[in-house]
Each structure stands twice: as C-alpha cells, then as structure tokens.
Amino acid sequence: MIPSPVMQVVAGILAFLGGWIILCNWGIPIRYYASHKHGSLVPLFGGLLFALAMLIYPAPSVRHWAWIPFVADLGCAFLLLEFLYAVFVLKCFKK
Questions:
Q1: Taking the CB of residue 46, how many other CB atoms lie within 10 A of it?
Q2: Residue 94 phi/psi, 5° resolution?
Q3: 51 close to 67: Cβ distance less than 8 angstroms
Q4: Which of 3, 39, 79, 80 is the most exposed place for a label (fewest CB within 10 A)?
Q5: Residues with Cβ < 8 Å from 95, sequence gap 6 or more?
Q6: Alpha helix (H) ranges present in 36-73?
Q7: What are the pLDDT digits (tens) for 24-37?
Q8: What is the DSSP letter of 95?
C-alpha cells in the first residue's frame, strides 16, 4: 500500500489540476458576457480529476463529498443537460 503522505501529495496535485480546469470552465461564460468572446468547455475532466483527488485522499470523511466537483464543474453540468435534452427532447435513443 502507498504511504499516506504520498497519497496526500498525489491528491493535492490532482485537486490543483482539477480545480484549475473547473475555474477555467467557469471563466468561459464570464468572459463571454464581459467581452462576447466564445470559448469551449472541457467536459468532465476537471470534475473527474477533483473527484479522484477526493477519493484517494487518506481521510475517510473527504470521500463522502466526492460528488461535489461534478456539480460544481460547468463542463459536467452542461454535458448532463445536453444529454438529457438529446434523450427527452430530440429522442435520440428511439427503439
């Protein structure tokens, strides 16, 4: 098993990268409304990295909150909304 300090460092690096991507995803709509410049979201990547960091962190109380990055990341939220739109409105998965 990997020692706890190593896991803390790995979790910290993953949390930093995931948090950076989540902040960049939030910056895209802010930049659009401020200067009308378009950008594209990075779907799932920021939320996935941050959630993985929370899952591998040695403290067990952190693991219960690993779902929050998926909700906080705009890339994940918009991807879920687009999927639901495709299924229920466009009916992409017809039998």
A1: 27
A2: -75, 150
A3: yes
A4: 3
A5: none
A6: 45-56, 60-63, 68-72
A7: 888 888 888 899 88
A8: -
Give the Å distances, CA to CA, from 5 to 1, 2, 53, 59, 73.
Answer: 12, 9, 13, 11, 27
Q: What is the pLDDT of residues 15-71, one digit of tens each?
A: 999 999 999 888 888 888 899 888 777 778 899 999 999 999 988 889 999 999 988
Closest-CA residue to 24 (of 79, 66, 78, 73): 73
Rounded distance between C-alpha atoms, residue 68 and residue 65, angstroms: 6
- Tokens for 87, please give them: 């299924």
Q: Which two tokens stand for residue 65?
A: 């909150």
Residue with tokens 């939320």: 47
Residues near 31 by beta carbon (within 8 Å), at least 6 away in sequence: 37, 39
Are the C-beta atoms of 41 and 29 separated by less than 8 Å? no
In whole angstroms, what is the distance from residue 95 CA to residue 85 CA? 17
